[in-house]
Design goal:
Largest sheet: none
Shape: globular
Order of helices and strands: HHHHHHH
Distance between the termini: 31 Å
Length: 149
């Protein structure tokens, strides 16, 4: 489960930037604005946005939310749709509650940021929603090491 969570979090973290990056490209905005804004989430950087700090913050926030989703996925199936719904809830917490205190985050266009969170949840939910207790390397329902006659 830990490897699955790491893989799900990494893929979801990368994919989650697609909506805001696409929006920035289509509207002529700065494609790194969201990354810089995320940097202000780190202690002591509230008024100092930065790309490196933004990458660190993004990894930390994504890791935290992946851990939450992985814990939920241990007991409940998430999948794409429930993961997307979870992403919407995460957006509410990240953007409406925590983001309110950070001017650089508040200044970002809202819809692309919400979509980033929805994509994160959908991808993480889908990747975490594999049948538990199965080994991907086996193709039969027998346990590894047992041969079928």
């Amino acid at each position: 489960m830990i490897r699955r969570a790491i893989r799900a979090g990494a893929v979801a973290a990368v994919a989650s930037g697609i909506p805001s990056t696409t929006h920035a490209l289509l509207t002529g905005r700065d494609v790194l604005a969201a990354t810089r804004a995320a940097g202000t989430l780190l202690p002591g950087r509230r008024d100092r946005p930065g790309i490196a700090a933004g990458l660190v913050a993004h990894v930390l926030v994504s890791t935290g939310w992946t851990a939450v989703l992985a814990a939920i996925a241990r007991r409940h199936r998430l999948g794409l749709l429930r993961g997307a719904a979870a992403g919407l809830g995460i957006a509410a917490l990240d953007l409406c509650v925590a983001g309110r205190a950070y001017p650089a985050v508040r200044a970002l266009p809202r819809a692309p940021q919400v979509l980033d969170h929805v994509v994160f949840g959908a991808v993480a939910g889908a990747l975490l929603d594999r049948p538990h207790g199965t080994d991907q390397r086996t193709t039969s329902t027998t346990s590894p090491g047992c041969s079928e006659l």
